[in-house]
Amino acid sequence: MNTRREFLKVSGGLLVGGMFIPYLTEAAKVKNVGINLYSVREQMLSDAAGTLEKLAKIGYKEIESARSEKGNYYGLRPKEIKQITKDLGLCLRSSHVLVNTDWKQSVEDAAEAGQHFLISAGLPSRGQTVDNYKRVAEVFNKAAEDCKESNLIFGYHNGGSDFTKENGQILYDVLLNNTDPDLVKMELDLGWAIVGGADPQEYFDKYPGRFPLWHLKDIKKDKEESTEFGKGRIDIVGLLKNKKKSDMKYFFVEQEEWENSPMESISFNFNYLKNLRF
User: Fold this and answer.
1) What pTM was estimated for this model as a whole?
2) What are residue 218's DSSP bridge partners?
3) What DSSP state is assigned to residue 84?
4) How sure is the predictor about 20, in pLDDT bands with cuts at 50, 70 and 90?
């Protein structure tokens, strides 16, 4: 027969097991934080190698380049940025380009740079109509085939206007429904999607496997401008909890506007993510 002391000892242990184990279990941490270089575009244009070194020192691991007045890699040649990022412990994972007359060269450069994704940063033709988005879908299907031949994955980065409607149809959905899901992936800019009226979770449920890349940003509460994490209207933690549902492989921090300086903001954003537990 258990004594009162034995009972309290056993029941106390059960209480600890039942109540406190969740707090003792290590919470999820954000790892391998990426950044889109448009966030530091002026710094990249003036000193590409030096800026990449600063990003590595902050702790960023994944890099997504962006088209600039000096080309797709801010004046660096594909082999140069491949070597620089490798030496710094960074991975050049993706780049933003335009599907235009320089498209074939962009594909060749991306393959030479050793990256995995090539992302269209905008639509190749203008027009917020269903017909235009169907035409764009055909262009993207062909672009994705070009990428596949070079062992690249093609994708599209949305803006907020992609979620407008024509005749009851959401234009972004038209694009998703008319592109090959095995070839054309989406880099969901979560901030602009939400500003455009979309619910990312609904898209993760409706189009599984289509969103391997994210742009993670916060948006000011009173303006359609990006801001530092935790200072705007976007639920950063809530979105990160859906990374498995969306089958997200990589994400890139992006901030287009700053209160002080780009480097201060991206350092703040990295530390914000580093300290998250969810």
Assistant:
1) 0.89
2) 227
3) H
4) very low
